Amino acid sequence: MKNYKLYKTKNKIAYKIPAKDKRKRNIIIAGVGAIAIMSSIFVYSKLTDVKSNNENENYVGYYDVLPNFNTKVKEDNFVVLNAGDYNTQGTLFQDLKMSYCNKHDISLGVIIKTDAKTVLDIYNDIDYCKSLIAKYKLDFPIYLNIDEIMENDSLNTSQKSKLVECFINKARENGFCYGLHGKDSNLSNFNNYCFNISGFNIYLKMDSNTVKYTGDYQILEDLDGNIKSKVDYEKIISKSKLNQKENFIKDAYYIVEEGDTIDDIALSFDMSVKDLLEYNELDEKDICAGILLNIPNKLCISEKLLNDDICDTYIKKGVDLSYCQENVDWDKLSTKIDFAILKISEGTRKDNMFEEHLSNCDDRSIPIGVYFITRAKSVLELTNEVNTLIKFLDGRDLVYPIYIDFEKDVNVYKEDGYDRLDDMLSTFKNIVMQNGYKPGIYCSKSNYCSIYNSTENNFLDDFETWVAGTKTYDEPCDIDSILDPGCEFTYQDLTARCNMRQVSESAKNSGAGNYCGCVDLNYCYTDYENEDYEVQCEIKNIDKFNGYDKLINAGQGILVVLTATSIIVLKKKNKSKKNTVRLHF
C-alpha cells in the first residue's frame, strides 16, 4: 500500500490512487480494450474475406478449407475435398465446408477415397456421388482415389481394372465430370499394368522428387502440398452441363417371384448369371421369392420391375442414311437399330433416297430424325434452305431433332462474304422451333470446339448436339461389335457432353452398306421418344456430422459475445468512483 493515501468513507476504508498510477491503469484498460476490438475485427474479416488473390481463375487449389477462419482460399481458387465414400465420412465438418465453398463462389470438387473390393461397392460410391451433386454445386471433377484399390494385395490386376472401369462407366453415364486421383506411383502402375488412363482427367499427387506417370495430368500436388491446375474446369462443367442431377440415370430393381430361376432373370436383362450375382454380391443359393435384385442400368427393360417402373437409362443404337444407301435390307437393318436419322436435303435440293427411307421406317415403326447439309453463306440463304426443308417434311412428326450439318469448317463464318455464325444458328433455331421441331447441330469435334469458343451466349445450350468421331471412327468393324464410348468426349482440352455420338463411319454387316458396305453408326443418350421423360433418383442421406457443423457456428458466436462482454466489463470498471479503487478489509 506504499504511496497510497488512506481515507475513510461511511462503511469502508479505501486508498486514493495517485494520478501517475491512475494513468498506468487507464493505459492497461485501453490496451486490453484495443486488443479485444482488433481481435473482433480480425475474426469478422476472416468471416467474410475470400476475395481474389490475383491468380489465374482456378489455377491454385487446396485440399481442404477451414470455414470462417480461412486465411488462404480465395474466390478464384478451387478446393478439392476428401469426401470419403458411401459408408465413410471423409473430411470433418464436410457439410459446412462444402456449403461455405458454394456460398463464397469457391470452385469445389471432391475425392472419393474408396475402399471398394466389389462392384457393388463401386455402385454404392456412385450413388453417394449423386447425393453430393444433388445437394451441392460441384464445379470441379469428382475424382476416384485409386490408392487403396492399387495397394490392396487381395485384388489382382483384372479386379483392380474392373473396379475402376465400373466407376468410370457409371460416372460417364450419369453425366459426371470425373477423373482419377492418386499417388504418382499408383497412377503410373495402373496405367502400365491395368489399362491406359492417359485420356482421363488426372489429379496426380507426387510421392517422390520426379514424376513417374507418363500420361497427361491436369492437376498436380507437389511434395510440399501445393496444388496447381492446368484447366479451368468450372468453365467446362458449366458450358457442358456436367455434374447436374438432371443427367442422372436410374438403375432398375427386380423382385424375384415364385418360379423364377436365376437363368431366366439373367436372360431377361441380357446379363450373364455370373455378372448378375456378382453385381448383387449373392450366391445362386440365395435367390428365392421376395429377394430384391439390383439391375445395372444399361439393359434393364422388363415388365416386372419394381413399381412397374422402367429403367430410365436411354442408350440406343441408330444409323444415319442418305442417297449412299440405295439397296437396304430393311428386314436385317431393323433388327440392328433403334432409330434412324435420314438425310433430307443439301442446300435446297432433296436427297434422292429420303422418301424411300422414310416410307420403310414408317412401315417398321422406326423413329426418325432428319439432317440437312447447309451450303448457305448468309442468313437469307439459310432461311431459304430451312424453309424448303420444312416444306419437304409437309407436317410430318419427328421423334428426333432436325440437325444442321456443317460439313465445312465453321470458322469460315469469320471470313468476308459470310454472315456471323451466331446469326446463322439463331435463324436456324427460330425457324425449326416455330414449326414445332427440336433444333440440333451435327458436327465434328473440331467444329464443336470452334462453335463453343467463337459464339456468344453459349449457343450450344440451345441445341441438341450430335458429334462425330472416336479413336476407331474409320476402322471397318461389325456393327454388333462397336461399343458405346459414352456421351463425354475430350478435344483440345475441352471436355464436353453431347446428346448423340457418331461413333463409326465404317460399320459393317448392317444391311444398309454404301458402295463399300459401310454405314454410319450412332449412340444416342437422350430419350427423345418420351417427351415427359424425367429422371428420378433416390438421393441418399448424407447429412452426417451436422451437429458438429452447428457447434462450429455456435463457437464463432460465443467468441464474438466474449469479445463484446470484455469490452463492456472494462467500460464498467472505468466508470467506478473517480480516482478511487475500493479495497475491502
Helix-strand blueprint:
Blueprint: E1 5-8, E2 13-16, H1 19-48, E3 60-62, E4 78-82, H2 94-103, E5 107-112, H3 119-135, E6 142-145, H4 147-150, H5 157-173, E7 178-183, H6 184-193, E8 201-205, E9 219-221, E10 227-229, H7 233-240, E11 252-255, H8 262-268, H9 273-280, E12 292-295, E13 316-321, H10 330-333, E14 339-346, E15 349-350, H11 354-363, E16 368-373, H12 379-393, E17 402-405, H13 421-434, E18 439-444, H14 445-454, E19 464-468, E20 477-478, E21 488-491, E22 494-497, E23 500-508, E24 519-524, H15 546-574, E25 580-581
Parallel strand pairs: 3-4, 4-5, 5-6, 6-7, 7-8, 8-9, 13-14, 14-16, 16-17, 17-18, 18-19, 19-23, 20-23
Antiparallel strand pairs: 1-2, 2-25, 3-10, 9-10, 11-12, 13-24, 14-15, 21-22, 23-24
Helix pairs in contact: 1-15, 3-5, 12-13
Give an overview in words:
The chain has helices spanning 19-48, 94-103, 119-135, 147-150, 157-173, 184-193, 233-240, 262-268, 273-280, 330-333, 354-363, 379-393, 421-434, 445-454, 546-574, and strands at residues 5-8, 13-16, 60-62, 78-82, 107-112, 142-145, 178-183, 201-205, 219-221, 227-229, 252-255, 292-295, 316-321, 339-346, 349-350, 368-373, 402-405, 439-444, 464-468, 477-478, 488-491, 494-497, 500-508, 519-524, 580-581. By secondary structure, the chain is of the alpha/beta class. It has an eight-stranded mixed barrel with strand order 3-4-5-6-7-8-9-10. Strands 13-14-16-17-18-19-23-24 form an eight-stranded mixed beta barrel, surrounded by four helices. It has a three-stranded antiparallel β-sheet with strand order 1-2-25, with no helix packed on it. Strand 17 (402-405), helix 13 (421-434) and strand 18 form a beta-alpha-beta unit. It is globular, with a radius of gyration of 33 Å.
